[in-house]
Amino acid sequence: MKKVIILFAFLAAAACFAACDPADKPADDPGKTMVTVASENLVVYMPLEAADKNVSVGEGITYAEAKGSASYAEGLLGQGYINTTGDNMKQAYLKFNLAANNAFKQLESMTFTCWVKLNESCSKGAILSVNGSGIDWPAFIAYFDNSGTNDEGVKTQQVNGRLVFHDSEGAEQNLWLDTWDPAFAKYDKWFQFAFTYDATSGAWKLFVDGILVKEAEFGPKLPVSNLVSSSCNAMYVGGWSTFIEGQSNQDWQSYFAGSIDEIRIYNRVLSETELATLRVQELAAAVAAAI
Predict the structure, then answer these.
(1) What SS3 class is residue 47?
(2) How far is CA 29 from CA 49, 94, 262, in A?
(3) Residue 67, beta-bridge partner list
(4) What pTM, to 2 d.p., does this model score?
(5) Non-local CB neighbours of 138 within 8 Å, separated by 6+ positions
(6) With 153 labelled, which of 55, 87, 130, 282 sits at a CA distance of 20 to 30 A?
(7) What's the average model confidence in pLDDT over 188-196?
(8) pLDDT band of 142, cuts 50, 70, 90
(9) What is d(CA 105, CA 289) in angstroms, rounded to the nearest whole number?
(10) pLDDT digits (tens, 9 = 90+) for 235-279
């Protein structure tokens, strides 16, 4: 009977957790519970627990250094990255070295997912970016900017993904997808951000908490591996590579003012149902780790 009561309590807690925005919570050993959705297609997994185990899946990606106010604090599952200043103009990022044959070179189509918790005072900057020599924009970027307001004066949040390809003649080809909506301005609460790119159709989709918020079809319909050239030798968590490397002084191309956890990159497009399932499973894993 006692086991039944404990099981019922756990299921009730998981259901409640999945239905609500997750609050802060302790997690003793997140490694005991793994999310299983499309695990065979997971090519980069960054739990962001500590410097010695930031990348548990990711061929050719190695931890290099933490700079400025980048630190580790309570994440969705265990520890996570945080900019402790909450200021997007003060240095805070993790740097990773990319070998010539790294995980990004395996990608044709892709899915990017992560969890973020925004700082309302200054939620700008990059979640993740990959550098590119001699270009104005990073080869890959995912970021937030909450500096906008709508016609009624309500603060809005820009959720944004960008891929920068180079065609056979070296010209930049950009995929840029963003959306502004007051509904996405969720401060001091963890929520899931994701986007997908289909190299065959050019379909490009943006998701918040497993729900499709914007989509488009773009050319040049190139594999993601085309954006990671031999000149790309670094990846940054919590910073925009062109800003870090001195190619920009724009405040919106800056450091992420908030928390980041559970970065995942898949080598195929996950469906909307799969993304929603992944979200529920990650939330359930967080509940299980906290018990």
Answers:
(1) coil
(2) 10, 22, 14
(3) 93
(4) 0.83
(5) 126, 129, 130, 131, 132, 162, 164, 240, 241, 242
(6) 87
(7) 91
(8) confident
(9) 33
(10) 999 999 989 988 888 888 899 989 999 999 999 999 999 999 999
